[in-house]
Every structure is written in C-alpha cells, then in structure tokens.
Amino acid sequence: MNSKTLLLSLSALYLITISAFASENSQLQPPPVYEGKIIENPDIPPIYTGGPGEMNKFISG
C-alpha cells in the first residue's frame, strides 16, 4: 500500500468519524422546555380563526 492510498484512507476514516460524532451530539440534546410560558415572538405565526386578539382572549380566559 503506497503512502498516498494510506493517507486518503485515513482521511476518509477521520471525516466519517467526525461526522458520526457531530450528528450523534445534536440528537442527544432535548428541545427546550418552556413550562407553560407564553412565547411573545414564536417562530411560526399563530393560526387562529379569530385573529390575535381572540386568541389572547381564549388563552387568558
């Protein structure tokens, strides 16, 4: 086995190992828990037929 093939093989193994650890670490972290807090600016706009005012009235009532 020449040195170029050995270097390429070790580089490929290193990259595969790093990518496996990176994907494993992101899956271990649970999503944040808000424990009933109302988020003022959510990422997804609320879908409520009465509009934001009716939604807030429903939540607070």
Describe the main β-sheet briefly. none
Mean pLDDT: 77
The string of secondary-structure elements, in order, is HH
Question: Which percent bin holds the helix content?
Answer: 55-70%
What's the gyration radius in Å? 25 Å
Structure classification: mainly alpha
Number of domains: 1
Outline type: rod-shaped
Tally of alpha and pi helices: 2
Provide the low-confidence segments as ranges: none
**Approximately how much beta-strand content do the residues carry?**
under 5%
* End-to-end gap: 75 Å
What's the total number of strands? 0
Topology of helices and strands:
Blueprint: H1 3-28, H2 51-60
How would you characterize this protein structure?
The protein is an all-alpha fold. The chain has one domain. It contains 2 helices and no strands. The chain has helices spanning 3-28, 51-60. It is rod-shaped and about 75 Å long. The chain starts with a helix and ends with a helix.
Quick tags:
61 residues; mainly alpha
In brief, what are we looking at here?
It is built from two helices and no strands. By secondary structure, it is an all-alpha fold.
